[in-house]
Amino acid sequence: MQPSSGTPFYMAPELHDGGVHSTASDLWALGCVLYQCAAGRLPFQAPMLEELIDNIKFAPPQPLSGAGRAQCPGLPCCCQSHALLCSRPC
What we know:
By secondary structure, the protein is mainly alpha-helical.
């Protein structure tokens, strides 16, 4: 197990449990950035770190509003469907 490093809002669920950085965790962070660009807000928010981590690990991100999708008409389908932000990928 390695020490945790990164910005909590963009860290993949497994990193909050002491997992290692990987391509999957990089794609998670990319999904967070794309979501923020489209929605103007982070996909997971909370006032306390423990609550944020619970949200990242167990709660789905809020769906992008019609305005968020309209601002980014070329946004890949994978981001619109939150595939990059799935805490339990298929």
